[in-house]
């Protein structure tokens, strides 16, 4: 916050209906489940809109086996009470984890036997040792030990992880029959999916090119598979080219270069290096676009000109190259001009996008095409409508784009169609569902409270061995392991069971699991869980002490830390309100907090005092706008000041929020304001307007 360095984090907002659209492809159902149960909703970016590529995998079994390849759910293991844990065993387990963290492998080996006597978590020590053996390419795969673990281990989550680890090790050694024998696994990673597809192909099964393209992400198993499929002609030049373009579009230059090396010759790779360093200089030495590879190199070079003087470079392109390239390639070039302009919040983005024709773009770029139109000084709603309609069906169906399409129709007098589209997303309990309700003339209100959970339902969930293991891990502070165990245990649960699991988390004060577990329900929506307000009003008291809106503060904390008091981000932000060290020191000095030291920053009182005061400082600096202040708290106050200064006219808060050029900050602002509106409803018992909270943002 404040001075926090912006970094990429995988987007983990479970209820953000539009989050996956800043990715080039959809997530798989399994990946969404695990991602939805992770800690933080979003991530920072040090440059606008660096995206994380996460793609769905279709039916990754071969066509001849086009049945459901998911593993059947095993019967739930039950513990009527938590098994007694010998102190020596638990102490040995703790020492074993420390040995893993410090890569003291010999020490780990000495501790495994004693740690394994822990009847609750002892399997972790065995798993860590076996995983190390699998990851060490110099060791022979210990097949007998692996089979023994899989046969005897009581922790299904660790068994599933070990199968995934074994698949990757077997693929690395080209033991593809073993990969096939180990399949399927639950929620396989992209690397595991690639290894399986590679194994299927090598052992004579049919693999479709779309399957490997959808599964691909940068990593050893996927690189090996993609190399094989390209050299065998399964995957085409254009398909790998599109992966490369996606990587360049999101500034993943190392990945793009590795992809380029698949489709370009050694001589062409020298050209690739030259054009990336100085595209105009390289282009001046070229005379024509002959052949698939040369055409692509010229297209890439032209697209890179969008990062310079776009007006002059566009004239150069029109005079020298526009008639020498296929229209689809020129459309992509102009789309890149539009994207660069949009991410720099320049006023000419829509102009470039309008030159890009109807050639399909990535979902990411389609989204920015719409945002560029919304950012126009005088919005031409016909262009907004057209930009949305150029999207693919699945992207267009997302609430964010349904809403803006409906707004475009409404602005053009097509009231009935607009009303139908608004109505179609009113059950989406997020930013755009709330706004759609208001466009229909209603004020958003809370959903009905579901019937209470029974004693029997709670007793059933309290005996779930997987959840009890996860709780033990949370108590030890081993959050990565705990989150994985918890997520795995939720597989197959219905709404009542999910609500009961959320209540179990509440009983154990694991507040992030309360929220994230409850958000998985489909029909029974329990806002007392989804918008939990822990700490017995102390947050409200801190906010009111400095005249801050408590609902807004709660909405921000829910987004920042999910109420984890010792939460720590990848860039060093700490505590409930995720304060960076420099920010904490600065605020402590400003409010004259006596004897402050950084080791106090996770303390509830200190963190909330500093956090609410900093939020108030940002709010005052940004003229009382919760939209701007939320953006400033996340990205630093200077950024929303800059974005606001580039406006040509006042815009509604929703447009300003949607056109924020950092993925994380854009999602953050929309979620914080949506959260705040719901908390306000819960605190007041009355319907509340999100549009009023968003207000208007004027240039300054």
Automatic annotation (TrEMBL):
Presence of the UniProt keyword Signal in the record: yes
Stored Pfam families: SLT, SLT_L
Domain Transglycosylase SLT, residue spans: 543-646
Signal peptide: 1-43
InterPro entries linked to this entry: Lysozyme-like_dom_sf, Lytic_TGlycoase_superhlx_L_sf, Lytic_TGlycosylase_superhlx_L, Lytic_TGlycosylase_superhlx_U, Transglycosylase_SLT_dom_1
Family indicated by similarity: Belongs to the transglycosylase Slt family.
Protein name, per record: Lytic transglycosylase domain-containing protein
Organism: Alcaligenes endophyticus
């Amino acid at each position: 916050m404040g001075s926090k360095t912006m970094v990429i984090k995988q987007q983990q907002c479970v209820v953000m209906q539009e989050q996956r659209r800043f990715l080039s492809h959809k997530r798989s159902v399994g990946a969404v489940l695990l991602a939805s149960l992770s800690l933080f909703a979003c991530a920072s970016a040090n440059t606008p809109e660096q995206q994380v590529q996460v793609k769905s995998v279709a039916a990754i079994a071969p066509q001849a086996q086009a049945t459901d390849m998911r593993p059947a759910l095993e019967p739930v293991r039950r513990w009527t009470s938590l098994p007694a844990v010998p102190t020596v065993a638990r102490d040995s387990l703790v020492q074993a984890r420390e040995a893993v963290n410090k890569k003291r492998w010999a020490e780990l080996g000495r501790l495994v036997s004693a740690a394994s006597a822990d009847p609750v978590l002892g399997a972790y020590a065995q798993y860590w040792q076996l995983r190390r053996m699998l990851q060490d390419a110099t060791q022979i795969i210990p097949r007998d030990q692996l089979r023994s673990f899989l046969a005897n281990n009581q922790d299904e989550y660790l068994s599933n992880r070990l199968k995934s680890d074994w698949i990757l090790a077997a693929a690395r050694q080209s033991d593809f029959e073993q990969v096939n024998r180990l399949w399927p696994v639950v929620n396989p990673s992209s690397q595991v999916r690639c290894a399986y597809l590679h194994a299927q192909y090598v052992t004579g099964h049919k693999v479709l090119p779309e399957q490997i393209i959808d599964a691909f992400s940068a990593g050893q198993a996927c690189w090996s598979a993609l190399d094989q499929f390209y050299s065998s002609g399964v995957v085409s030049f254009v398909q790998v080219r599109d992966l490369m373009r996606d990587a360049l579009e999101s500034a993943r230059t190392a990945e793009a270069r590795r992809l380029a090396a698949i489709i370009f010759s050694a001589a062409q790779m020298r050209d690739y290096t030259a054009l990336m360093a100085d595209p105009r200089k390289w282009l001046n030495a070229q005379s024509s676009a002959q052949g698939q590879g040369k055409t692509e190199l010229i297209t890439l070079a032209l697209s890179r000109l969008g990062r310079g003087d776009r007006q002059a470079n566009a004239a150069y392109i029109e005079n020298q190259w526009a008639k020498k390239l296929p229209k689809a390639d020129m459309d992509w070039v102009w789309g890149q001009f539009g994207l660069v302009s949009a991410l720099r919040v320049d006023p000419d983005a829509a102009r470039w996008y309008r030159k890009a024709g109807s050639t399909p773009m990535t979902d990411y770029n389609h989204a920015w095409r719409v945002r560029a139109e919304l950012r126009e000084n005088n919005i031409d709603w016909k262009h907004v409508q057209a930009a949305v309609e150029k999207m693919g069906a699945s992207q267009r169906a997302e609430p964010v784009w349904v809403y803006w399409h409906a707004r475009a129709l409404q602005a053009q007098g097509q009231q009935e169609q607009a009303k139908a589209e608004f109505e179609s997303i009113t059950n989406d309990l997020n930013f755009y569902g709330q706004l759609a309700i208001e466009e229909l003339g209603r004020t958003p209100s809370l959903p009905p409270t579901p019937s209470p959970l029974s004693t029997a339902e709670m007793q059933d969930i309290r005996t779930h061995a997987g959840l009890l293991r996860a709780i033990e891990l949370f108590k030890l502070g081993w959050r990565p392991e705990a989150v994985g165990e918890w997520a795995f245990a939720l597989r197959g649960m219905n709404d009542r069971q999910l609500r009961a699991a959320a209540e179990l988390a509440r009983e154990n004060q694991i507040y992030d699991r309360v929220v994230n577990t409850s958000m998985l329900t489909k029909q029974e929506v329990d806002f007392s869980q989804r918008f939990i307000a822990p700490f017995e009003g102390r947050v409200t008291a801190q906010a009111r002490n400095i005249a801050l809106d408590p609902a807004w503060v709660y909405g921000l904390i829910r987004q920042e830390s999910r109420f984890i008091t010792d939460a720590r981000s990848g860039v060093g932000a700490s505590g409930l309100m995720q304060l960076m060290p420099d920010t904490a020191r600065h605020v402590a000095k400003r409010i004259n907090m006596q004897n402050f030291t950084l080791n106090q920053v996770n303390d509830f009182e200190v963190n909330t005092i500093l956090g609410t005061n900093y939020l108030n400082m940002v709010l005052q600096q940004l003229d009382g706008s919760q939209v701007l202040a939320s953006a400033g708290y996340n990205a630093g106050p200077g950024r929303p000041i800059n974005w606001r200064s580039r406006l040509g006219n006042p815009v509604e808060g929703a447009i300003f929020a949607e056109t924020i050029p950092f993925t994380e900050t854009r999602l953050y602002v929309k979620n914080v304001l949506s959260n705040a509106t719901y908390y306000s409803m819960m605190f007041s018992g009355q319907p509340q307007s999100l549009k009023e909270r968003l207000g208007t943002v004027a240039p300054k």
